[in-house]
Design a protein that fits this description.
By secondary structure, this protein is of the alpha+beta class. The protein is built from 9 helices and 21 strands. The chain starts with 12 loop residues before the first strand and ends with a strand. Residues 1-19 and 23-53 have low confidence and may be disordered.
Length: 408
Amino acid sequence: MRRMTFFRFSFLTLTLIPVFVLPAGCRSRSGGSSQTSAPKHSTPGADAPQAAASQDTRICASVQAVSGEYIPLFHTNVFIKTQDQQLADRIESRLVQYHKLFDRHHYYYEDDGQGTVKNLRILNEYAAAGSAAVQQPLTDCIRQSLQLMKLTDNTFNIFLAPVTALYAGKFSPFPVQNTDPDPDLIAQALRRVLTPEQAASCITVQDDTISFTLPAGGLTYDIDLGGIAKGYAARQIQKEFLNGTFMLSLGSSTIIASGKSYRIGVASSYYKTLALIQLDLPSGMSLSTSGTSNSYYILADDGTTIRSHILDPKTGYSHDYYWSVILIGDNAMVTDALSTALFNIQDEHDLRRILDAVRESYGCTLEACLVKDASRQDKTVSLLMTPGFEPYIRKDYKGIGIVSKALL
């Protein structure tokens, strides 16, 4: 290892006061092994690993797949903070339903044990057949994803799976050096990634049915909702339990507050036990982050460039523009998707244009903070923020390692 100064820390601490220290850019994608056959049914949830809990914090349990495996909810750690345990039960139950729908790797039984959930894995398998009927939340999430692909100029893309597959096993939460995939393989994989225009012409979403027309060349579809599914689920939870008092953390990459404000700490990129900034997240708002802390490698060719798991759909590579991107808004689906989309945009004009386009389209509140390196040697960063982001930052906490702030 030539450059140990690149070590990146990631952690989540929950105390008895409403404070989360949130990893700057902890984002997980769908994962796990694939199963192609359905063994004999066992009762969903039977003998499931027990989740730990405190008086006001629910750590959600894993979900049993048809294969018998127990899959972590949304392939990550999910926390519900509330004094109302019946409310926590209801929220967790709804989250399980969304997890089953959006998982592209596993089959699941319906809650009553009668039949298999028509989820994203099944949809991807039957896309070549021309059309498929699935549950409305899945069709709606795909519809919204296609819209956000267009609004973000294809910096958010749900068809990137052929490219991400080339990076399998390369990323790490530790400072490892690695090489990029073969450029020719990346170029071939990019030809299988639908652009917003191709997706609009090839895919029709209506109620609970999705119809597919194979793109030129007979290429197949492989939809991955890992960059939006947690945000979509959080948004639906927030609307369904509007009068509840709780905080929901989905892998720490998306957090929503309901009923009261919560104090959130965004972890420093360099210091394990200190928050870069602390925020007040009001009721009805969401916070989403993306970054490199948990999934990256140092490019062995130069020992300097950081490659993260957040790939640019136009090039097949990631960019080293930011340590992390933080979004606050009143639509968790939008903040989740935009925290991915903005990560590979350097031009400030393009950043403002895309933020404005999304605000106008969704009629939502949306503020951004981009954390950039100032000096890796000195372990310092600079913040580039929209004007509406700074009021959420707590003034009674001095940020760690911040040498400058600028408005976007």
